[in-house]
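To illustrate the input format used throughout this study, we show a single complete record. The first block contains the structure-token representation of the backbone; no residue identities are included at this stage. The design step must infer an amino acid for every position from geometry alone.
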């Protein structure tokens, strides 16, 4: 009898432990016993699709057994399918899946072709390069990565995303999948049926592409999805919109400054702001002088319209007054004429015809063109050709240009006169033999700098044998008696005196030249074509007015949050306006009264004219006193003036402005709580839809910095909409003419 009661008591105790550990205290207990268990112990339910459950579905005898039991293997396809509906669940979270692509996942989430890279770790950059090449060839298929994680790996996850510039979603999980027992594999399937698994890590991209083509040729009853794939609106350039990127660090002024070079004659620096796909030109004091590139893509032209994709190493040719640089993810060598402010592609040779007239230009701006640029991307890139180049060196005689990939596995030589890539060498020993002396020469001044002057992680994957600092080959340069170093941890450029080794203050300024960041829109020029292309951006203020037809002056007064301060006055180039419906935006027009009537059709053509009109002269230097009369800053309030002309009907005025801000420093305060600063920065930069685990990962990354996080400068978006109901025109005394009424409205905005 006593034995029976003892067994019952033990059984009740076990059940009570299970209930206790499955509640709020579970994570606390796990943190004590096993730091690699960040997930709560709940089962996955997906209509019977999942073939395994969490460990608490199994019988156990003590709590110690619970903490040390491994999760059973789960079918990978079933797990992916069950994870598409939510950004974060009990057993997963998406590290870089944004709200912008939720519609795609919701509507087509279980349809179409998928290519998945599943790995136990992400020390496999070559494999991701293959995925990027396939993504260029097949932009309509769904590509994703899956990684097994533990809670101590958060900083490395973020570092990997930024270093490799991952533009497809990454699904993180702690489950165990039978498909990746050998470390990593590719999985290809369609509509979550009949997966084909490639266990070879070095499987050829050509094999993957051939199998994708064969899979897409198979008949399917999913006619709607096929219609989407065949639609001419699917453009290769769509992958250039970075639609999967939702990193809070996008809003920093620099987002992975990977490379830098200098012009000694004019004391200029050329900073490759890699993940913003642009090159910033500044002087040795940090004052921005120009910017090369506007958004991700592949397009030549003036600095404002040229498109790059992750520019890397560069060098300045003083004789030609040209900057040669590598367009890494376009696999190209390009040249920027600094006097003419034009970008041209040296390699590969473009077969694109830029003709076609104004109609083709309009279709291109609206995203409706039926052809794409042919930059030799119709086939998967051959690794023997230029493939993800990163380092750019010039020979002593300036006749030969050396191009090296980031992992020092391939060397290409280009004749500077003809612009042709003539020789290719494989392997790091050959690279050392040919360029070793040149590499050591460029790195020689680095040994003079104390290592504690900056914080930078060294990835041995990117270093040559015998040259531990070779991964920094393109991320440092000398100008006069100073060295400038890319600090990829704190997203800044360091200025170090070579003689004393003292790190000097170097902060960028004159941000008005950078204009409106592309990553804050979707994009702006296609807003009217989509009807509401900016609907995924939170609205800070919405107000409605009933007015008479005529010209309306809109005076905005914006109160910024008490925790932030605006580092520079708002410049007109950082404001974007649009009027829709029975209104047209006429801010800055010399004679706005000439617009007697404003209709929808007239507005359409006016907006196209605005797109086609040349921009203001970018060579004119922007100063703090050179502010447009439509913007001002008084009493810590941002004032923005806009003017629209209205006709009878309804209209909406959309105003976007970008403020360059940083956390406010309280005078005479010794508060150095970096955790608090990181949390506040993420409050301003993170999407409200971001999950807790994703936020924790970004927070851990920010806390890597040893500097004061209050010095980080970031962009804050202001989104305001004014809706106007306009009645009929008042009649004049002769009953023939109509009366236009000038109105002024004031809008007060408080930023959250």
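Output of the design step:
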């Amino acid at each position: 009898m006593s034995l029976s009661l003892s067994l019952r008591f033990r059984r009740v105790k076990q059940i009570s432990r299970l209930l206790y550990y499955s509640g709020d205290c579970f994570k606390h207990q796990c943190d004590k016993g096993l730091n690699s268990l960040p997930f709560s112990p709940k089962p996955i339910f997906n209509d019977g699709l999942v073939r395994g459950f969490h460990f608490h579905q199994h019988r156990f005898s003590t709590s110690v057994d619970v903490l040390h039991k491994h999760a059973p293997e789960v079918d990978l396809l079933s797990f992916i399918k069950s994870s598409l509906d939510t950004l974060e669940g009990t057993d997963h979270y998406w590290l870089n899946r944004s709200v912008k692509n939720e519609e795609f996942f919701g509507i087509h989430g279980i349809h179409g072709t998928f290519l998945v890279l599943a790995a136990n770790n992400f020390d496999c950059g070559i494999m991701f390069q293959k995925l990027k090449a396939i993504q260029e060839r097949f932009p309509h298929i769904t590509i994703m990565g899956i990684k097994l994680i533990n809670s101590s790996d958060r900083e490395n996850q973020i570092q990997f995303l930024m270093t490799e510039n991952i533009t497809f979603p990454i699904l993180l999980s702690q489950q165990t999948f039978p498909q990746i027992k050998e470390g990593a594999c590719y999985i290809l399937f369609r509509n979550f049926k009949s997966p084909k698994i490639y266990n070879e890590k070095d499987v050829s991209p050509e094999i993957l592409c051939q199998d994708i083509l064969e899979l897409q040729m198979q008949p399917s009853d999913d006619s709607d999805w096929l219609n989407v794939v065949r639609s001419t609106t699917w453009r290769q350039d769509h992958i250039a919109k970075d639609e999967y990127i939702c990193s809070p660090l996008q809003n920093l002024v620099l987002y992975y400054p990977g490379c830098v070079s200098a012009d000694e004659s004019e004391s200029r620096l050329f900073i490759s702001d890699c993940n913003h796909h642009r090159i910033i030109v500044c002087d040795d004091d940090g004052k921005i002088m120009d910017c090369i590139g506007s958004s991700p893509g592949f397009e030549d032209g003036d600095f404002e319209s040229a498109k790059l994709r992750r520019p890397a190493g560069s060098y300045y040719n003083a004789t030609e007054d040209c900057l040669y640089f590598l367009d890494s993810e376009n696999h190209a060598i390009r040249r920027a004429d600094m006097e003419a402010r034009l970008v041209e592609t040296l390699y590969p040779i473009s077969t694109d015809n830029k003709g076609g007239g104004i109609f083709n230009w309009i279709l291109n701006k609206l995203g409706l063109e039926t052809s794409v640029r042919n930059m030799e991307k119709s086939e998967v890139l051959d690794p023997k050709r230029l493939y993800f180049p990163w380092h750019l060196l010039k020979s002593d005689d300036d006749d030969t240009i050396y191009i090296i990939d980031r992992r020092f596995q391939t060397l290409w030589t280009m004749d500077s006169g003809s612009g042709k890539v003539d020789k290719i060498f494989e392997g790091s020993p050959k690279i050392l033999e040919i360029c070793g002396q040149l590499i050591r020469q460029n790195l020689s001044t680095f040994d003079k700098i104390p290592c504690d002057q900056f914080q930078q992680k060294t990835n041995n994957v990117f270093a040559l044998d015998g040259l531990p600092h070779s991964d920094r080959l393109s991320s440092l340069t000398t100008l006069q008696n100073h060295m400038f170093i890319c600090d990829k941890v704190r997203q800044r450029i360091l200025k170090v005196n070579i003689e004393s080794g003292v790190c000097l203050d170097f902060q960028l300024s004159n941000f008005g030249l950078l204009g409106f960041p592309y990553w804050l829109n979707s994009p702006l020029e296609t807003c009217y074509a989509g009807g509401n292309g900016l609907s995924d951006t939170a609205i800070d203020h919405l107000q409605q007015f009933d007015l008479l037809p005529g010209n309306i002056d809109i005076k905005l007064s914006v109160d910024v949050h008490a925790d932030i301060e605006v580092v520079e006055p708002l410049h007109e180039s950082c404001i974007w306006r649009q009027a829709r419906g029975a209104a047209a935006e006429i801010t800055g027009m010399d004679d706005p009264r000439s617009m007697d009537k404003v209709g929808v059709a007239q507005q359409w053509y006016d907006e196209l004219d605005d797109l086609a009109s040349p921009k203001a002269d970018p060579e004119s230097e922007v100063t703090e006193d050179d502010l447009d009369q439509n913007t001002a800053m008084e009493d810590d309030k941002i004032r923005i003036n806009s003017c629209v002309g209205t006709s009878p009907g309804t209209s909406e005025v959309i105003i976007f402005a970008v403020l360059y801000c940083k956390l406010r420093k309280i005078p005479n305060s010794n508060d150095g709580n970096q955790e608090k600063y990181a949390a506040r920065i993420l409050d301003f930069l993170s999407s409200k839809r971001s999950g807790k685990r994703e936020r924790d990962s970004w927070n851990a990354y920010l806390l890597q910095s040893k500097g004061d996080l209050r010095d980080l400068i970031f962009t804050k978006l202001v989104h305001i909409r004014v809706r106007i109901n306009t009645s009929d025109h008042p009649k004049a005394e002769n009953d023939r003419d109509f009366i236009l009424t000038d109105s002024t409205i004031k809008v007060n905005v408080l930023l959250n």
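Structural context for interpreting the output: The two ends are 67 Å apart (CA to CA). Residues 2-21 form the longest helix (20 residues).
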